[in-house]
Amino acid sequence: MKKILLLSTVFLMVFAVSCNEEDLNKLNPNGVTFDTYFNNAAELTAGVNAIYALVQGPNLGSREYFFLHDMRGDDVATGGGQLEAHRAQMLNGVHDPGNGVSVANWTGWYRTIHRANVIIAKGPDVPTTAISETLKNRLIGEARFMRAWAYYELATVFGGGPLYTSFVESVDGSAGRSSADEMYAVCIDDLKFAEANLPATYAAADRGRATKGAALTLLARVYLQKGDYNSAKTELQKIVSSGTYSLAPDYSLNSVEEGEFGVESIFEIVYASSNGAFNWGGDGDGAAVQEETVRSQEYAPIAWRNLIPSNKLLNTYEHVDKGDAKSDPRFQHTFYVAGDKYNNGALTLTDEQVQGQTSTVRGATQKVSWKKYTIMYKSAAANQQSGINLRVMRYADVLLMLAECENELGNSAAAIALVNQVRARPGIEMPPIPTANIPTGTQAQLRAAIQRERQVELAGEQVRNFDILRWRKHGKLNGEPISYFQANKHELVPIPQTELDNNPNMDQGDQNPGY
After folding, report:
1. CA triplet 154, 400, 2: central angle to 5 degrees?
2. What is the CATH number of the domain that holds 160?
3. Is residue 118 over pLDDT 50?
4. Which of 198, 396, 408, 481 is the most exposed place for a label (fewest CB within 10 A)?
5. Which residues are CB-neighbours of 81 under 8 A, at least 6 positions away?
6. Domain range holding 242?
7. In this predicted structure, what is the pLDDT of residue 382?
């Protein structure tokens, strides 16, 4: 679907009525409570839609999600002094437990978990006279997918935190810190349920909801973070053998509006253009909130340009000047440089239009900016919000994760074939590996080739941070990619200080090392 209804006000009203102090607990007999709502298909669907609403909002998908993951990897650099202080701190590794980017993600994911827990608890009790078992289990499966996604983020980025598998009705219900492995266990259980109860595809009106393929992809990501390559391979092979997905006929379709819900897309956060009515001061929640993203405004060359591609990323792409047989076309699909056309080819980008820092590419200095997810490909301006869906999972990622599994399990021929399938994608058609500059003769060489391919194929798609985290954790890196990295500190983002101060079952001893 292009727009999931945001009926999240139901949750706000229910929660407010349910959690008042005893002396104020005078219920309106006509009001809504957890006990009187979720009685039919429409109400259960509205509750699930409210979960998606949170993930769409500024705390997560439309702003702070992509900032957190991009700045925790090595794909980006500062665009200049215009980058806000708390973002610069995260980018440079000097952030603290009060950092606004990490706090927003923590808050957004725990609110997501709370709403999911309500559906998971109340859904089974909706009478069969008011909803079919298939729809009921599908909606619960969507909620469990979203809860699993939230716990995957919290476990991987923060290293754990409070674990809730039922919704909290008072402050007394706060939980202490659980480990990442305890959270991963919940993820695995949730995603197996989701796999069993979610459809492979939806009709047009419901596109954007979690599918079986999304559950399998996330499950594989969980197993990879745990270092369980056999289990990850099993889930990834299910996706490949299903025949549901294929590589897009044009690489650029993976980051423009016209390519949404394409053959390569497995899961997207859905947005819709609404003429610049983004709610900067809110959390993206509520029935009247517009469903736009500010990704273009934040990154585009003729907008704020807060983050630009790092020199390291730019120089990773193959190019004939480096002795490669072919220059990688994905560079032009991913970045803007002076001389590029925009606004449907009607205008030409110049360096004078672009504020901020320059880049060094193969020894030459020029201004390079992100092209993925910027609206200026069809607009004269990019300093605006957009309705471009954020692709969270796509098929190329599945093939490259499967290649990683095959290599770690000693199946180099299968791994090379999978990498070459991605390299041979329509319109890209890069020479197969091994090449003169990309050897694959040993497991370590092939691992480096897969890691390089993931970086250029998935650049700017909030994947690199997760890759580095698992490769570092399992000793798969040939050198530390993050320049500021300090062991026993920068592996994890700090637990927000507000959580330690306000949660009666956590204290400073629960903080991550180094903070």
Report:
1. 65
2. 1.25.40.390
3. yes
4. 481
5. 356
6. 9-246+490-510
7. 80
